[in-house]
């Protein structure tokens, strides 16, 4: 259970209410059992974001989610509307609790490597060890948009879908080609389903060395 927390929206510029950045010192922690509504304007920050707690190690406790800032209807978009739009939250996972990991760091030690990776809070197996239900279902000939965010603590991850070529259409609000998802980074890609009656695995791996294009 999280005790007192405050949320931050990664990379969103706080318009009109700049003090609502969610950081300790500018926001009071939200006590357990209480609610707080953040009010701010995003204006032209049209892209994919995610939010997470900014206090302690609460982010390790999976307290995060995706945010989408869409353009207004009167603003033309250079891309056709996809059949569906998915948010994909990938990140490293540690077996220890956020309190245990915080104690390790406070003692001056490293937290080591994670025991696995979660995609939208799930692995490929359910609690009984059987294959889990598909995360996404696509139809042949249709295009789908995936907003990929690395919500992990430390590990950079590569992401791809088996037997599919994805087209990169946005990275942190701009375009690039070669990339990896370092912790805190966000990507938007589009995937056109080109095969019938075939299951595809969502694959990830840790790159040998980070690749930066910014």
Automatic annotation (TrEMBL):
One Gene Ontology term of the molecular function aspect: copper ion binding
Origin species: Ensete ventricosum (Abyssinian banana)
SUPFAM superfamilies linked to this entry: Cupredoxins (SSF49503)
Protein name: Plastocyanin-like domain-containing protein
Family to which the UniProt record says this protein belongs: Belongs to the multicopper oxidase family.
Domain Plastocyanin-like: 12-72, 84-175
